[in-house]
Amino acid sequence: MPELPEVETVRRGLVPAMEGRRIEAVRLARPDLRFPFPDGFARCLTGARVTRLDRRAKYLLARLDTGQTLLMHLGMSGRFSISAGADAGARPGAFVYAPPADPRHDHVVFEIEDGIEVTYNDPRRFGFMTVFATAGEDDQPFLKSLGPEPDSNRFSGPYLSEAFAGRRSPVKAGLLDQSVVAGLGNIYVCEALWRARISPRRLCASVAGARAERLAAAVRAVIAEAITAGGSTLRDYAGADGAMGYFQHSFDVYGREGQPCACGKTRIRRILQANRSSFYCPVCQR
DNA sequence: CTTGGGTCCTGTGCGC
DNA sequence: TGCGCACAGGACCCAA
To answer: Could you name the CATH architecture of A4-139?
Structure first.
């Protein structure tokens, strides 16, 4: 489900419910999501206070006052919802209920102080959670090989040129590679390539110089705009506060096969690359 | 090392 | 209406 803008939207929705508060209990409805929960998962979270809720790439990172970090990934269909119990009167109206989700797929419930419940629902169970020592973050398997965030100073045209040098895979695959740039998924790769007027089939190695500069700028812009819009809402995605993102109304190519490109010269085409859909304009993008 | 393909899982929407 | 198939926002893992 979520790419960087959606995860960032979820993070912002969870901050008021979790940051600064203690986790009183963790209820697991099953022993695993995509992977088994690590031994003692619920036990080591119980009683911990969330000092800060961060995001890296598509990962949510809850910093705990125990020196550990709770890592959460939403996979394809993961979502959080927040409910405030009757004794959360300290902040009436501060939390709203997310749209209904099938309770059969409520896999994790965090009981937070002040009567707040944060529920993780994930029909496909591609998501996962784990806990690691914050001090060892540089060695954390899920985080250690991530590339720069799109909005960081490290991410630039020259950086992309170097990262793509010698790569024979299509640029579509290059941008999906989380070690090149962190947080992009199928939607925003398609959109960024359209904005940069680069075909998804072009080989990475030929994206350099001015092309790489255009592409880096397009990635930065599309991610920033999508975050401002609260992400994209497809099917059932919603932010943790129940609000729907609206960036999907700004798609230029994604999901628009057969519809006219903004250039007016032809229609958007869909091809399969590595068994995933790529949407692009064969006239605009070369 | 890079690259491509299969895999996990459930739900939805389409054509027949 | 029912059924089967294609497809879905991710990313690990392994073979070549």
So the answer is: Alpha-Beta Barrel (3.20)
**Cβ of residue A173 near strand B, that is under 7 Å?**
yes
Question: Is residue A28 within 8 Å of A131, Cβ to Cβ?
Answer: no
Active-site annotation holds for A2: yes
Mean pLDDT, range A262-284, rounded to an integer: 94
Report chain B positions within 7 A of protein CB atoms.
2-12
Domains A4-139 and A157-251 agree in fold: no
Distance, CA of A243 to CA of A229 (rounded, Å): 11
Going from N- to C-terminal start, the domains of chain A cover 4-139, 157-251
Determine whether A27 is an active site residue: no
Please give the pLDDT value at position A96. 40
- Averaged pLDDT for residues A60-78: 96
pLDDT at A239 over 90: no
Q: Which residues pair with A278 in a beta bridge?
A: A271
Other Cβ atoms within 10 Å of A279 Cβ, number? 24
What is the topology classification, in CATH, of domain A157-251?
Answer: Helicase, Ruva Protein; domain 3 (1.10.8)
Indicate yes or no: strand B within 7 A of the C-beta of A154.
no
Q: What is the pLDDT of residues A80-121, one digit of tens each?
A: 999 886 554 444 334 444 456 788 999 999 999 999 999 999
The number of angstroms, rounded, from the C-alpha of A9 to the middle of its chain's C-alpha atoms is 9
A172 labelled catalytic? no
